[in-house]
User: Fold this.
Amino acid sequence: MTLAGLRLEAHYVVTADVDQDFGAGAGPMHSVHEHGVRDVISAMDGSAMDPARASFLLKGSRLIEPSRIPAVACPVVRERSPVDRASAKRIATERLIRKHSPAAPRAGQDGAPRKMACKIGPRSVRITDIRKVLLPKYQLRLKFLKRSYECTLVQNGSEALITESDMYECGACGKDAGKAALLCNSCGAMAHAPKPFGPHSHRCKDCGKTVCGNCAFRAKGALVFKKMLCGQCAGRGPGANRAQ
Ligand SMILES: [Zn+2]
Ligand SMILES: [Zn+2]
Ligand SMILES: [Zn+2]
Assistant:
């Protein structure tokens, strides 16, 4: 496994307090009091990080200050960050308003009167902290047999999360082979699991190893059912190309 590169993505970590009581004539019907809510806004395009990933990253403290770029023995790419602090603040405020404003109950089919929608006002959201950080994304190159795969991972100190990978791409059809992907014992490509008439991968009739469609050989004399062999059992060596 080699470290092929390090990509640094700038994000804003926004911390806020949300306080609002909604009254509806006869006393409050809803109130919001959330303190220390955190949101991660991309400085590249202003998008919000999905909550699961944000909480994963905020758990450890692997987000680094822009002034402290780690020394690594691979190319470091720093992504552009056109979104400024004020815009990030505005985006985070709008998100908090949307998140904490309860949806207006729809007029019931039983003819119940439609209630007023409660919307949090911008003054109820107080940004208490906004910090620009860099998220390091490590690009790794892994090698299985003749194949090399790339994957990108982020870590939070104790755990690592793979964010992008071409590892599950089926070597035969190019589509995502999913979690049930099998590794071809000849070339190291991933492939869809063997199906009776599927071209993606096969189980060798002699040794039982799985091979992808590109590395399987048809056994001689198999007329009705395809009997497939791996390169080794077909006497062509593990690196031989298909000659169905
Ligand atoms: Zn496939
Ligand atoms: Zn193969
Ligand atoms: Zn075999």
